[in-house]
Protein 1
Amino acid sequence: MNRRDLLKSAFGLSAGLVGMSALKPLYASDGLAFKADPMYDVPATKVTDRCYYILAQDPEPSPENHAFFNNPGFIVTSEGVVVVDTGSSVQIGEMVLRQIKKVTDKPVVAVINTHYHGDHFLGNHAFIEANPKVEILSHQATIDNIKNGGGEFWHGFMQRNSNNGISGTVVTLPNKVLNGGETLKFGDTTVKIHQFGKAHTECDLIVEVVEDKTIFLGDTAMRRVANMADGSFVGTIDTMKKARDLGGKNYILGHGPHDGVSICDDMQAFCENIYNSAAKYYDEGLSDFEMKPKIMAQPFMKDVASSWPGYESTVGKFIAVAVQEVEQNMF
Ligand SMILES: [Zn+2]
């Protein structure tokens, strides 16, 4: 799709693009898009012969990092490249395409959005622009969320946090649905899609590259304390058990460096520490701010989780969300 077509689409001629009202002011009246500066190159990290990701250096979006704070990934197959999450903007999507070109001449044949948070789908625009026929796959609940306000919310969030560094980005919906349970063949590569229930969101997709024993976890696991508002502690604990059972050798995350299966252990321990303690202290009649110092004093929290980005500022919010979940699970 060229820019004119894209703009026409953005003004309502295509069902594939949403968030128009929020996007209109970003374009000059002569029909030319004002586009923020390109994203600087961040080289891809090679995990296996097929699996790569681009490691964000910062845990949060900022004007300096152009709102680049998550890890887009890609899988090089004999049939073409499969991208897992596209970053926070068209500029970051274009940067991902440049890094892919350094590794392979093959075209991008598919894009997977693991969930509906903006750092995982706003870069879709770049891939549709490079290849209007590219398949963008996600869970139906991801598509619904982006359509029903999520796209506009995350576009605004990234603009505010990057000093309008994502200008020119058009919210671009996935165009094909995955439910979890699918096995996709891309030439020599088998990609299994898993959905283990509500974890980081109600619709996280986990992407397993069978031949390389490598698993893209999306945001279901991270050594970072950021956002549990759409998630579930009990569901994350269950998802970590299932992710561990996949028997991966490498686990690639939406945020932070990749690792072995210990990432599942850490995420499970983190959620168990918070949720089980919240349940216990709730029974004892404590409020969330009374239980916070007790939970923070537990060995795993003190020795391991306290070094994770966002811990000091956000762990209290996580405890409050856990208390809500404890209350919900009583009925
Ligand atoms: Zn997320």
Protein 2
Amino acid sequence: MTWQNLDYKQPYNIDLTENKRLIEQAQLDASKSAAERNRLGQFATPNTLAIEILSYSKTLLPPNEKIRFLDPAIGTGSFYSALLKLFSIEQIESAVGYEVDRDYAETALKLWANTLLKVNLEDFTQSVPLEQENLRPNLLVCNPPYVRHHHLSIEKKNFLRDLGIKATGIQLSGLAGLYCYFMLAAHEWMSQNGLGCWLIPSEFMDVNYGRKIKEYLLNQVTLLRVHQFYYDDLQFDNVLVSTSVIWLRNTKPNYDYSVKFTWGGTISEPIFSKIVSSKVLKESSKWNRATILDTQKTSIKSKVKLSDLFEIKRGVATGANNFFILSAEKISELGIPDELLTPILPSPRYLPDDEIFADAQGNPSLKHKLFLLTCKQPPEELRINHPSVWNYLQQGVEAGIPERYLCKHRSLWYLQETRYSTKFLCTYMGRHQSKNSKPFRFILNHSKAIAPNVYLMMYPKQHLATLLAADPELLQSVWKALNSIPVQSLIHEGRVYGDGLHKLEPRELANAPADLLLEALAHPPQLGSCFVRQPQSCGDVSC
Ligand SMILES: C[S@@+](CC[C@H](N)C(=O)[O-])C[C@H]1O[C@@H](n2cnc3c(N)ncnc32)[C@H](O)[C@@H]1O
């Protein structure tokens, strides 16, 4: 049965209605026995929590996107109330709620008369999702009924098992509670890329029956954030269950991705926060903080070579540095436009320090700025759109540059290899008696400059990139650790020429030991102090 009040364009006062709702909710709850409420998992979401959940959800939605809201277990409408408080009425295109208990459904309808909420007095698990993609909800928020498996009849369990399989192909263990089936059933309801938010018991993250739900969250949708309230911070009166809020996007991921995990405090001000890769979550048997941090460390620690932390590539081999790498003065003389230039580092002997800072444009703060001519357009296009560049290329032709080995083997003789800038570089050639008596230097590059082939470019792999993104201060720790790799172990990996010149190929640098980096990652000073201090006094949520 569906009801909808059609007077929804009338102005209404959300705070007044919310106050009424709280009174009616308390009266309804009091009118039911504990057994009745347990049977249908009737524990309403406190308004402050609903507002926090919707506020964070709002940050995950495109600013002006029209909202099609669905609450599959709406009760008296705690989340709907928060929706109306936080979104303009014009932004809400539709709002639908399911409620199996007539008392709650009728109360919701009465309270939200004059709004566009459609209340369906129906068991959500028995309802049929909309066919049309453009009508499907793009914001699903739910505090599903927490009904343990032993309160579900065999027939109900069989029905729910088949429903889960139909919606996602996943067969849940018979120990799963009703909330797990709600999550799977709702999968079919969401629009592509729609946002889902679930207020659920944390239990499934640490027990066997939750394994399939975790697989669903990692593989069939994109898990965005998990906030776990502390065990002693119960969110519901009379319910001794630790609670989490989960946000997901209905987009099937096809690569490793990062998930935000937060613990304790509130959603907007958690006590701890960590970015975790989906790969680590797949390997982590439990999703509590200790296990995740442990898995994150071991998953890095079990691999101890630089190649496990970095992809290492030689810098750009231009084929003719003097022609393709241009000084700022030469560029203005030739009139070459910025969009065809990429900042590039000079040879290491022109680097006064091992840390390169950036100017306001992101170019290296160095006396001699250099740029690589980077054009991909065919000659005819360049002639019309960038005559200055075309003229310069003609000079190259006259000088025989296209006949040089590398240039000759390119589809367009002036095309350059694609390289992106990276924070970490290694000078791969040197003598033992050079700076600090080290043949190789590790450079920390804060600029957007790429590097020529006298450098090795070290691109952090997913694990390391995730850690660095979560805590940029780790850049310094990693850089220092790179510089502390014993010279002998680098020399051992590389080769030495008769004249005492040492060289490291990308594969050889990749083989160097990474133990010191792991230590730097596991015990950066700021993390170390967070582990021992009192959570409340810790202003830094990055650990
Ligand atoms: C945990 S409460 C949440 C209520 C409300 N959304 C809130 O957050 O305050 C779960 C609600 O789901 C309803 N419910 C239980 N089983 C249901 C089902 N199969 N279909 C729809 N609603 C159901 C209960 O009556 C209850 O009102």
